Amino acid sequence: MSLYHLESIFKPESIAVIGASEKEGSIGRALMENLRQAEFAGDIYPVNPNYEDLLGYKAYPGLTDVPAAVDLAIIAVPIDKVPGIIEACVDAGVKGTIIISAGGQETGAEGRKLEAQIKKKAEAGGLRIIGPNCMGIICPAENLNASFAAHMPLNGNLAFISQSGAICSAMLDLSLQEKMGFRYFISIGSMLDVDFADLLDYVGNDPQVKSVLLYIESLTNFRKFMSAARAMSRMKPVIIGGFIRNPIGDQYLPSLFQPDEIAAA
After folding, report:
1. Same domain, 120 and 160
2. Contact yes or no for 198/205 (Cβ under 8 A)
């Protein structure tokens, strides 16, 4: 699917936060506060049947109760509820989702079964997914902080994509200390749908991106990634870190991406 509907994730005009909350310390509250503090210009719809109003926004009991079209749905509920929510997203015409919820494939057979249900329902409706088990995304140029990160980074021309939430947090702290700016800051999670290759294609087509930094722990499609990385590296620097699992075994890839080096790894 590659670039299909990714604009709905990175340049949405409206966002629904499913699992939004006013509870202090909750992910649902952090998501709402980050969207508000980033001064996102579009419409924000908190979805939670326990509220009529939430942090100054009218709340809705379900996605189908939202009275307008939704481009991006951010999902922060227990993962066993996610298949039904994905079905509701498809019915409502949502094109992009970020699934914050953990408890998928990393928990074993039951988690893999849930992810398979989610993927089947999403693919049937052409719905794109970042996650599950991710921190979210930040696009400073779009005033978009669709994450539960503690900080909003500066605007810049670096695209950062990571599977590790801990690395994301460390990079955000470093970016504030060193005044580093980002065009895209993406926590990719379990890659049920959107993967590194898709995101390399997407950020590579943005002329404002001057370089890309990846932290990789696994690859779902090694050949697809290689094709995207080779194409990207001809235009812009691509730096890779992390311990990468791939079909030919566990390997450390070079920290500075060179197509010939990767092909020979």
Report:
1. no
2. no
* Contact status, residue 75 vs residue 46, Cβ threshold 8 Å: no
- The structure's pTM equals 0.89
C-alpha 100/C-alpha 76 separation (Å) is 5
Shared domain for 13 and 118, answered yes or no, is yes
Q: How far is Cα of residue 64 from the mean position of the Cα atoms in its chain? A: 23
User: Among 1-10, 66-75, 203-212, which is the least confidently predicted range?
Assistant: 1-10
CATH number for 188: 3.40.50.261
- For 253, the domain range is 136-264
Sequence-ordered list of residues with C-beta below 8 angstroms from that of 178, at least 6 positions apart, any chain? none
Distance CA 252, CA 265 (A): 9
CATH of the domain at 35: 3.40.50.720
pLDDT in tens, 134-191: 999 999 999 999 999 988 999 999 999 999 888 999 999 999 899 999 999 999 999 9
Both 37 and 142 in one domain: the answer is no
Q: How far, in Å, CA of 12 to CA of 9, rounded?
A: 6
Q: How far apart are CA 114 and CA 133, in angstroms?
A: 13
Residue type, position 258, single letter? Q
Single residue among 130, 148, 169 that ends a domain in this structure: 130
Is residue 240 a contact partner of residue 255, using CB atoms and an 8 Å limit?
yes
Q: Single out the residue of 2, 4, 8 nearest to residue 137, CA to CA.
A: 8
- Pairwise CA distance, residues 228 & 116, whole Å: 25
Give DSSP secondary structure letters for 181-247.
Answer: EEEEEEE-TT-SS--HHHHHHHHHT-TT--EEEEE-SB-S-HHHHHHHHHHHHTTS-EEEESEEEET
| Domain count along the chain | 2
